[in-house]
Amino acid sequence: MAKVSSAEFQKNFGRYQDLAMKEPVAVTRNGRERTVLLSSEEYHRLKRRDRRVMGIEDFTQEDIAAIERATAPAEARSFDDEVK
Q1: In total, how many domains does the chain have?
Q2: Quick one: which H or E segment has residue 5?
Q3: CB 29 within 8 A of CB 10
Q4: pTM for the complete prediction?
Q5: Domain presence at residue 5
Q6: What average pLDDT does this structure show over 45-74?
Q7: Is pLDDT above 70 for 84?
Q8: Residue 2's pLDDT is what?
Q9: Domain with 30 in it: what CATH number?
């Protein structure tokens, strides 16, 4: 991943836009990464992964058994009224 200061990024925005088509560009401020510029194609790919829905066929029998055995922690009781 390329890294560039925010001042340099502002001066050469088009250059870093082009570079972001090939690899993410981390924009730093005071030496620390603040934002990352990436291609819209990569952004949409990541968003699709974020919203992946799993079907029952994606779970193994061990997964299903573990879910059936699972219990919510005591702190979660405050949400019980939301499922009634």
Answers
A1: 1
A2: strand 2-5
A3: no
A4: 0.58
A5: yes
A6: 88
A7: no
A8: 96
A9: 3.40.1620.10
One-character DSSP codes across 8-62: HHHHTHHHHHHHHTTS-EEEEETTEEEEEE--HHHHHHHHHHHTPPPPGGGS-HH
What's the Cα-to-Cα distance from 17 to each of 3, 6, 12, 82, rounded to whole Å? 13, 13, 9, 46
pLDDT tens sequence across 2-56: 999 999 999 999 999 999 999 999 999 999 999 999 999 999 988 887 777 888 8
- DSSP label of 76: G
Rounded Cα distance between 33 and 27, Å, is 6
Question: Are 11 and 34 within 8 A, CB to CB?
Answer: no
Q: In whole angstroms, what is the distance from residue 73 CA to residue 2 CA? A: 43
- Residue ranges making up the domain that contains 13: 1-43
